[in-house]
Design goal:
- This protein is mainly alpha-helical and 79 residues long.
- It has one domain (2-67).
- The protein is 72% helix and 0% strand.
- The chain is built from three helices and no strands.
- The protein is flat and about 40 Å long.
- 0% of the residues are buried.
- The model has no long low-confidence stretch (mean pLDDT 77).
């Protein structure tokens, strides 16, 4: 999922007026993901390791679809 953070910064930078707000949302998502992972491990145990990669891939595909962009697009350049 580390590669997805780079995609997030590249594609969403124009939507945020400052880097401070962008980093706030990125870090909040990271902390939420860590908490959800801990809860999932607690409730599902070892079975989580079998489905976690599929869940992560599904989340990336959903967000890519919501953004309507492919992973091969180049980021917008600053003028």
């Amino acid at each position: 999922m580390g590669a997805y953070a780079g995609r997030f910064f590249r594609l969403r930078a124009a939507a945020f007026p400052s880097a401070k707000l962008l980093l706030f949302w990125e870090n909040t998502g990271f902390v939420a993901g860590m908490l959800l992972t801990a809860c999932a491990l607690y409730f599902t145990g070892a079975a989580f390791f079998g489905v976690a990669p599929a869940i992560a891939a599904l989340l990336v595909l959903i967000t890519m679809g919501l953004l309507g962009r492919s992973s091969t697009e180049t980021p917008p350049t600053a003028s």
